[in-house]
Amino acid sequence: MEKGVEPHVLMFPFPALGHVNPMLKLAELLSLSGLRITFLNIHSIHQRLILHTNLQSRFSCFPKFRFQTITDGLPPSYTGGLTKLSHLVRSMETVTKPLLRQMLLSGELGPIPTCIILDGFFSFMVDSNAEPRIPVFCFRTVSACSFWAYSSIPELIQEGQLPVKGEEDMDRMIEGVAGMENILRCRDLPSFSRVGDQTEPILRYSVAQTIESSKAHALILNTFEDLEAPILSCIRRRCPNIYAIGPLHAHLKSRHPGEKSPPELESSNGYWEVDRSCLAWLDAQPSKSVVYVSFGSVTVMGDNQFREFWHGLVDSGRRFLWVVRPNMVGGKDGENGVPARLEEGTKERGCMVGWAPQEEVLAHEAIGGFLTHSGWNSTLEGIVAGVPMICWPQFADQLTNSRFVSEVWKIGLDMKDVCDRKTVAKMVNDVMENRRNELMGPVIETAKLAISSVEEGGSSYCDLERMIHDIQLLCR
Ligand code: UDX
Question: Are the C-beta atoms of residues 381 and 358 closer than 8 Å to each other?
């Protein structure tokens, strides 16, 4: 690395919304500290974000920030998304990776970066031994607990604890994973380890990337010490240089000048048009009376599951605000699969939108509970807002997150693997009333800890300062 020059950070997120969003928040935090940032995004994702969010206005105040785009190598007609992870990975390895190298060497991405902040879910993208040698800081956008669960899978296979031997084996406790004794059942491991065949490519890929990311110059995690200290100390034994700097959305809020950002600068997180009308609907509801239902940007469900949720919500007798993404039911973009009859029936006590301003919704006085798929960004947003959760995890890290929500942090209930109307109605009433007192103590305490971690002197605040300092030192 050339000494005495101004630091320049290249950031490259994995092309999925749940990964791009936290990377953008980190980019904003680093820009606020005055660092020069080049943010490399996949063309198609960038175009969708430009169309539906305030991305450009959010970054226009940083003269040393710029966006660059690159191809993922897939044809424009490709609609496989994350369901065809292997296609995406193959294409990125053969097309995007050599192109990235060429762009780095030709100066198209600006001066040779001081370091690359690379999403650890595709740490193969940069060879740390190739010239020019640029330190890689791997950013894993998942929880420390799921990262640790992924890292432990090879040993679990070796010891014969995996594969899971069918449905009847799902409640068996996993043994010998430090920091997780008496917590994890087979059911709670990252979903890819459920497949009987332990050579399944998606499992091998996820585990390999997790292990690879712990070998990077540094590991960045969107979590905070008070939430995951025991697990973080286990990870530090393999990867000593960790920056735990989350929750990033709260971190960003606390560092932005001004009390409250104007609506046009509120961070918006989506590929879809945000429907702000639900805020006015919430304004008209009593305090803590509404369950917010949202399953993130990827989860899809069948018609039957959708109907069970709908009946469960209606039968619970509670008010609800439900995000039904355009491609969520049945999985096809543009067809939300919501039968008109169901939508009609919802109007009585519920509100449905295609995409909500989630952070603002969760912070709204009317919200009393959060039915979530336990994606890590949503989980952190629920924690900071101090809203108890009902977890219906679907895949990957979500299965581990939901177990920690219910059994370790005790801030919600885990509805894993079931979604019949009776269970939905019961869990909704448990969170809104029957078990509310028991949950609210830990919920309020955890929210306080999250917020103080990002305030001056807090653990995440100090880790971010240390990271910025370490990046600057690379140039001295
Ligand atoms: C994916 C994975 O599913 C998740 O497990 C992993 O931790 C990150 O990548 P996703 O499924 O989209 O992400 O879930 P999540 O991490 O919760 O992110 C969803 C984001 O979309 C959140 O930041 C949330 O605020 C935002 N969102 C969701 C909206 O802004 N509006 C909505 O209506 C719904």
Answer: yes
What value of ipTM does the predicted structure carry?
Answer: 0.98
Catalytic residue among 119, 397, 414, 430: 119
Least confident range from 144-148, 208-212, 217-221, 236-240: namely: 208-212
Query: Ligand 1 center to residue 296 CA distance, Å?
Result: 4
Report which DSSP code applies to 301: B
Instruction: Give the residues across from 119 on adjacent strands.
Output: 139
8, 19, 251, 364: the active-site residue: 19
Distance of CA 269 from the midpoint of ligand 1 (Å)? 8
Report H helices in 159-288: 201-213, 225-238, 248-255, 277-283
* pTM to 2 decimal places: 0.94
Q: In the structure encoding, which two tokens stand for residue 226, read together?
A: 């008070």
Residues 129, 383 contacting (CB under 8 angstroms): no
Contact assessment for residue 101 and residue 133, using Cβ atoms and an 8 Å cutoff? no
Phi-psi region of 35 (alpha: psi -120 to 50; beta: other; left: phi over 0): beta
Residue 119 among the catalytic residues: yes
**Does ligand 1 come within 6 angstroms of the Cβ of 360?**
no
Place of tokens 């104007």: 262
User: Whose Cα sits closest to atom 6 in ligand 1?
Assistant: 375
Grade residue 338 by pLDDT with cuts at 50, 70 and 90: low
Q: Is the CB of 21 under 6 A from ligand 1?
A: yes
Q: Could you report the per-residue pLDDT of 70-98, keeping only the tens digit for each? A: 999 988 766 655 567 888 999 999 999 99
Best residue among 297, 299, 391 to mutate for probing ligand 1's pocket (most ligand atoms within 8 Å of CB) is 297
Q: How many angstroms separate the CA atoms of 87 and 207, rounded?
A: 18
Tokens of 407: 């059994």
> Tokens 């491991």 belong to which residue?
189
197 or 64, greater pLDDT: 64
339 SS3 class: coil
- Per-residue pLDDT tens digits for 272-310: 889 999 999 999 999 999 999 999 999 999 989 999 999
